[in-house]
Write a structure and sequence with these properties.
Elements (H helix, E strand, L loop, with lengths): L23 E6 L5 H13 L4 E6 L5 H5 L10 E5 L5 E6 L2 H13 L2 H10 L1 H8 L1 H17 L11 E5 L3 H17 L4 H13 L4 E7 L3 H17 L3 E9 L6 H8 L5 H10 L8 H30 L5 E5 L7 H13 L4
Parallel strand pairs: 1-5, 1-6, 2-4, 2-5, 6-7, 7-8
Antiparallel strand pairs: 3-4
Helix pairs in contact: 1-13, 3-4, 3-6, 5-6, 6-7, 6-8, 7-8, 7-9, 9-12, 10-12, 11-12
Length: 344
């Protein structure tokens, strides 16, 4: 069911999705799978139809700015795109040092002193000797955006999308608040960590994975999903990125995979189509048969990897390979694909 207001009427821009009720979408994936691009496209898809979405970056790489072809983003929430059918996407590149100053102001009223500590290098020292503190600060800032209300009492954002650390670090990143709760027995630090943990582990959160149909990304995705479940964190869906069309019917792929393509017949077809003029048709046919065979073997490998992903029993969404590159037009194409498949 789509989202509805207190009267039971459908909200503007509401629609049926696989993630109705989820307000924090955390996107992880092995490096090179297009994690940031998918997170950006998901933010556009969620904002479509007049909604307001915040896209958060936590690794300091300015990846969001690069994807949207913008200058480096400051530490403030800034509108960066208009979604399909209306709707706004805002972005925030979280700086752990600035997040710590916000934390000092929020809980201790010490922002001025925090700035002085920053000049002395104490803040950087603290996050260096306690790396988990850095993760608590950035997850805390994201959780605050999820909970925040506007002046009318409504949600400041309809959804928040986090471009999170890679798969190999995602569970430790999200579970660090639990470690802090165990270390801090009382006081604002413990209360803050418990509040953040409450958001991250709630039904309002989903941790999605981005993968390619290749052995290493798929295995990391399988491991990440298993670790999330063991940690009691909410598993979302899997975005299979850069999917190529098979291009050939099944029987032709099977023949190519087994090396049964008739090269003489291919040569005749090339000649009939006028594609072998001035070249050795037999050599051309042999090279083409080898290339088709490689394509068939890759297709078979992808089929096996997809079967592995299906064992997770989570929704999967296929995103096409963008032949023109992941430019702004490509982001909108991915967003529409996500919506068509019920991911947003």
């Amino acid at each position: 069911m789509g989202e509805r207001d207190q009267t039971g009427r459908a909200r503007p821009g509401a629609r049926d999705t696989d993630w109705d009720g989820v307000r924090l979408h955390i996107v992880s994936g092995k490096g090179g799978t297009g994690k940031t691009t998918v997170a950006a496209a998901l933010a556009l898809a969620l904002a479509a139809g007049g909604r307001k979405v915040l896209l958060v970056e936590v690794e300091g790489r300015q990846g969001i700015a690069q994807v949207f072809d913008l200058p480096p983003l400051p530490y403030e929430e800034r509108k960066i795109a208009v979604a399909p059918d209306g709707g706004d996407v805002y972005a925030l590149a979280i700086d752990p040092e600035e997040a710590m100053l916000d934390y000092l102001e929020m809980f201790y009223g010490m922002k001025r002193m925090g700035k002085a500590l920053t000049k002395m290098g104490v803040v950087d020292f603290a996050t260096t000797i306690a790396p988990g503190l850095r993760d608590v600060l950035v997850t805390g800032k994201t959780s605050e955006a999820v909970r925040r209300r506007d002046r009318s009492g409504g949600r400041a954002y309809d959804a928040v999308v986090m471009d999170a650390p890679p798969t190999g670090r995602i569970v430790r990143f999200l579970n660090v608040t639990q470690e802090v709760v165990g270390l801090a027995r009382m006081g604002p630090v413990k209360n803050h960590a418990e509040l953040v943990r409450g958001v991250l582990a709630s039904p309002e959160t989903a941790v999605h994975f981005v993968t390619l149909l290749e052995e290493m990304p798929v295995q990391e995705t399988l491991d990440g999903i298993a670790e999330l479940r063991e940690a009691g964190l909410p598993v979302g869906g899997v975005f299979v990125n850069m999917v190529r069309a098979e291009g050939l019917p099944g029987p032709a792929l099977d023949a190519a995979y087994d090396g049964r393509l008739d090269q003489a017949e291919i040569a005749l077809g090339l000649k009939a189509a006028g594609l072998a003029d001035g070249v050795d048709a037999s050599a051309f046919a042999k090279a083409l048969a080898q290339e088709v065979g490689e394509h068939a073997r890759r297709a078979e490998l992808e089929k096996r990897e997809r079967a592995e992903l299906e064992t997770t029993l989570v929704p999967q969404y296929d995103l096409p390979l963008l032949t023109e590159g992941a430019d702004l037009a490509g982001l909108y194409e991915l967003a529409e694909t996500m919506r068509a498949q019920g991911a947003a």
